[in-house]
Amino acid sequence: MKVPESSKSPKIIQLLQWIFNPLQLMETSAKTYGECFSLQLTSNTPIVLFSNPQAIQQIFTAPLEQLDAKASAQLLGSLLGENSLILLSGASHQRQRRLLTPPFHGDRMKAYGEIITNITHEVISRWKIGEPFSIRDSMQEISLRVILQAVFGLHQGERLIKLQELLRSVLNLSGSPLRASIVFFPLLRVDWGNWSPWGKYLRQVQQIDELLYREIQERRDRPDTSRSDILSLMMSARDVNGEPMTDVELRDELMTLLVAGHETTASALTWAIYWIHHLPKVREKLLSELDNVKENSDWNEISRLPYLTAVCQETLRIYPILMLTIPRIVKSPIEIMGYELQPGTLLQGCIYLMHHREDLYPEPNQFQPERFLQRQYSQYEYLPFGGGNRTCIGMAFAMFEMKLVLATVLSQMNLALVENYPVKPMRRGLTLSPSGGKWLIATGQRQKVKIPVGV
C-alpha cells in the first residue's frame, strides 16, 4: 500500500504560497508528486489532494461511514452559521438539502429570467461610452441585486440598500491575497473593537443578522401566499416529519445563498467577459449565435444556446472559482487509487488540476469553448460546482444567470479590453478571481438587441 507523498517545503512556506500563489503551488506539486499529494495548510492535519477522475469518483460515492464532509474554515462558520448547508454533514445535511432544492429548479427559473435581464439592463445603462470601468464592480452589483431580489423579493427600500452595503463590506474583508490572510491565520481573528478588521467584520455580521431576522419575523407575522421568492418557499417547506425550518436555520441558509450566490457568480461573469474580448474569434462566434436568436425567443431558449453554454463551461474550467472540492474527512480506513488513508485524514478533489489534465483537456491553458461541443465530460472530469452529495445546490441558477447576463451585455454593448492592462488570476478569500481594475471599455451600443426584457 502507498501513502501520499508530502510537500517537502516548510509548513509556513506552503501556507504563504497557498495564499499568494495557489496555482503555482498546485502545479509544482503535481509535477513533483503526480496526481495525489498532501499539503499542510490550515491545521496540523495534512490535506490530501487528488486530481484523477477515478479517485474523484471514489471520494464522491464513498458512504458516509467512510467519508464525511468537513468544512474547516472558521471564517465560513462565523459568517454562514453552523446550520449552513455548506457546513452540515450526515442526516442534517440531507434534510436541509431536500428543503432547499425545489426553489432552484423547474418553472422557478422562468421567474428569475425577468429579474436577471432587468437588473442587467439597468446596470448597463449607466456605462459611459469611451470611459474605462471596472467590469467586476458591475458584475458584483448585478449578481448581488439578482440574489437579493430572487431570495427576498426585495426590489427597493432601506433594508435592501443596507443589506447590499453590509454584504459588500463583509466580502471585501478577504478581497485580496493579503486580506485573505485572515482566513488562514487564526491569530488575525482577534476582536479589538470596531477599528480592527475582525472586530469590524463581527459587528457587520451582527447588523446583517438583525436585518435578516427582522425580515423573517415580518414574514411570519404577515404571511403572504402569493409571494414566490426563495425565502417564502423556504418558510413554507416541511421536512419528512412535517417540521419547518427554524429562524436560525433560515438565517444561516439565507446567508449561505447571499454569499455563495453572489461572489462566485460575479467572478465567473468577469472571467467570461475577459475571455470573450481577449479572443476576437470567440466574441465573433458568440455574437453570431446571439444575432441569430429569433425575435420571440424566451429566456430558456437563450440559455440553451450551444456556443453560449460552451463559453460558460470553458470559463469555469480554465480558472474554476473554487479550486478544491469541499473537504471530506476519513472516518474509517479507506483505499483510494492504491493509497491507504487513515481516519482523521482530510481529502479534497483538486478542481483546478483536474481541469488542466492534458489527457482530458488538450492545451489546457488555452481558452477553447469548442472542446465542450466536441465531447461530453463526466461529473468526475469536470466539476466546477463540486460533486456527489455536495454538488452546489445553486448550480442550475448560476449557469442560467451567467448565460442571461452575458447574452444581455453582448447583445446591447460593444466592449473592448484596455490595451496592455494585465488581467491575472488572484485569490479572493477562498475563491479564484480575475485581478481588479478598470480594464474594460464600452465603445458603443449594438443595434441587434433581441434578448427579452421583462416589464
Give a written overview of the molecule.
This protein is α+β, with helices and mostly antiparallel strands. It is 48% helix and 10% strand. The chain has helices at 11-20, 22-33, 53-61, 74-80, 90-100, 108-124, 135-152, 158-171, 181-184, 197-221, 230-236, 247-260, 263-278, 280-291, 299-303, 306-318, 351-354, 371-374, 395-412; strands spanning 5-6, 36-39, 47-50, 67-69, 132-133, 328-330, 334-336, 339-341, 346-349, 413-417, 425-428, 431-434, 440-445. The strands form four sheets. It has a six-stranded mixed beta sheet, sandwiched between helices. The protein has a three-stranded antiparallel beta sheet with strand order 5-13-10. A hairpin with a 2-residue loop joins β7 and β8. The longest helix is centred in the middle third of the chain and has 25 residues, at 197-221.
How are the secondary structure elements laid out?
Layout: E1 5-6, H1 11-20, H2 22-33, E2 36-39, E3 47-50, H3 53-61, E4 67-69, H4 74-80, H5 90-100, H6 108-124, E5 132-133, H7 135-152, H8 158-171, H9 181-184, H10 197-221, H11 230-236, H12 247-260, H13 263-278, H14 280-291, H15 299-303, H16 306-318, E6 328-330, E7 334-336, E8 339-341, E9 346-349, H17 351-354, H18 371-374, H19 395-412, E10 413-417, E11 425-428, E12 431-434, E13 440-445
Parallel strand pairs: 1-2, 3-9
Antiparallel strand pairs: 2-3, 4-6, 5-13, 6-9, 7-8, 10-13, 11-12
Helix pairs in contact: 1-2, 6-7, 6-19, 7-13, 8-10, 10-12, 13-14, 13-16, 13-19
